[in-house]
Amino acid sequence: MLIDFFLHLKASRLPVSINEFLALLEALQQHVIEHSIDDFYLLARAVLVKDESHFDKFDRAFGEYFKGVEALPGMEVLIPEDWLRRAVRKHLSDAERAQLEKLGWEKLMETFRQRLAEQKERHSGGNKWIGSGGSSPFGHGGTHPEGIRLGGRSENRSAVKVWEKREYRNLDDSVELGTRNIKVALRRLRRFAREGAAEELDLEGTIAGTARNAGWLDLKLRPERHNAVKVLLLLDIGGSMDDHIRVCEELFSACRSEFKHLEHYYFHNCVYDYLWRDNRRRHSERIPTHDVLHKYGNDYKLIFVGDASMSPYELLQANGSIEFNNAEPGAAWLRRLTDTWPHSIWLNPESEHSWPYRQSTSLIHNLLGGRMFPLTLDGLERGMRLLSK
Amino acid sequence: MRFSGSTTYVTTRDLNLAVNAAITLQRPLLIKGEPGTGKTMLAEEVAAALGLPLFQWHIKSTTKAQQGLYEYDAVSRLRDSQLGEARVADIGSYIVKGVLWQAFECETASVVLIDEIDKADIEFPNDLLRELDRMEFFVYETRQTVRARQRPVVFITSNNEKELPDAFLRRCFFHYIRFPDKETMKSIVDVHFPGLKPALLREALEVFFELREIPGLKKKPSTSELLDWLKLLLAEDIPPDVLRSKDQKAAIPPLHGALLKNEQDVHLFERLIFMARHNR
Asked: ipTM value of the model?
């Protein structure tokens, strides 16, 4: 039966391996846990899942396998929250609690479906209907040895199924993109290299040199290692980007603290003849793009951040820009930039599904040779992996 | 050997289970979690609770896997050879044992802490695969194999700065220490300040959890910061009603410097308070 469980986890795209599965069986054999599904859940998680961003996926897979959530009838019915609101709570003695009949899972679900069909109003404190308090198996805040908890907080810790659990949802890497998460993703780019003046004793070199000198000390020094990644960040600003300001700010502040060599410039919609560093003074202090092209060596990694949604004319036609008379189309500039810095990617805050429906987005996608990634943690990861190659 | 928390360290059930699984199956346990949730403390507490010696290995960005096994002190040998010392002939006297060697040699079982493994080079965990798996390694200079007499219990902590290689992860058990909820936090504080006035504790915890709720804080205050803050509150003998700022939301909690460590966070916090004052 556990082989099915393992295959189910695999099918839920959790990175589990046979080794880990064997370790789980070994743990069961050695009686690390008693016979309790809660302990089994914790054990399986510790043994099989090695990253908190997979916890949510695991929770769901575990739930599906052991509870057959999908197969349950009537689950899609919305239960008015009002029914569940805790109003009354009966305090039962232990003897009374023992009297409560333990329904089997099958029967519990069967009854649950019946109640759903029958019940039409709020109920509280009783022992049959879905509601709060009381000793009916359905609802929350009540006492029943094997009930289904709907909403509310766990009080007696015996609910077979906790619907609203999923506490690790915000650690799932396709969802949240906090500054910290971005930093972790950006750290992929870190590369240490020896550069600069010699300042550290090179022990291996000294020994080799001394041995060659037949025992006369031959000191060798070498430069210290430091992070040598250089990043050039070009940010789209204004217009349709206003919706994405927060996420871009986070990306920017994460970049700032991660890289020693970070240069940033702004553009609007697409890169043309001029860039600027301070958006408030974009008209007075703009910098010719040609100067930027010549200033930074090709060891810089180029990261565009923009939603790439604009009129296709801005990319394909001279004078197509909405605010500037450009002699060359945007596509020419983009090609020039990516030729100068071959390590380049485009991060797009729009969701990946929408890209094919925007002409300009697919144009830029092609211009960059497919190196466009969504501005989610997963997208950042993929982008950084490509950049660090 | 079973671990179930100690008088100075509050554990949750899932943590106990992960620790006991790691002890029983003799696999390394990888611990992750927010800073200040007691990752490093865990190894010390387990060692103390089980009465085993603890070997600590704190990792820096320059640490090499080899240093945990042994180091060959070539410089001393070179110096001695130039001075014509007799012990130069024995290369063994210039081998300095590392943390893992010491643990492997230990007569009893032991606890090994590899702290902040993510600080080291990206290849570091890969270099330790065989050593942690088989608990043995080969000393090239003296041509001997060092094998663990008793497999040590290994704890590895990580702050998620670098991703660890899959091959390494497959050999470990994993536990993510979640930020404690109010109840657990209360028992943690109880353990550290047994005589704390309940009123002060309640107010302080409320201020603390409200502070953590503020969106956009760069560094949310953690358990260790709460404990520091309580220590300060006690030392200054601040009465609980000063903390109760429900009706006077304008008041900044006293000694908030212990909770907020970032200048920008303090500014943000003061700005929010300023706005709250004006909205009234």
From this structure: 0.77
Task: Count the neighbouring beta carbons within 10 Å of the beta carbon of residue A26.
Answer: 15
d(CA B115, CA B174): 15
Q: How confident is the model at residue B191 (pLDDT cuts 50, 70, 90)?
A: confident
- Give, for B116, the enclosing helix (H) or strand (E): none
Chain A hits for B13, CB-CB cut-off 8 Å, are: 42
pLDDT of residue B155: 94
Q: How far apart are CA A359 and CA A368, in angstroms?
A: 14
Whether the model pTM is above 0.90: no
Q: Taking each helix axis as running N to C, give the angle between helix B74-83 and helix A203-212, from 0 to 180 degrees, rounded to the nearest 10.
A: 30
pLDDT, tens digit, 9 for 90 and up, residues B102-128? 999 998 899 999 999 988 877 788 888
Give the other-Cβ count within 10 Å of A168's Cβ: 19
Residues of chain B found within 8 Å of residue A173, distances taken between Cβ atoms = none
- pLDDT for res A168: 54
Cα A294 from Cα A298, distance rounded (Å): 10
Are residues B174 and A51, on separate chains, in Cβ contact within 8 Å? yes
Whether B58 and B116 have beta carbons less than 8 Å apart is answered as yes
CA A123 from chain centre, in angstroms, equals 40
Token couple for B212: 């953590």
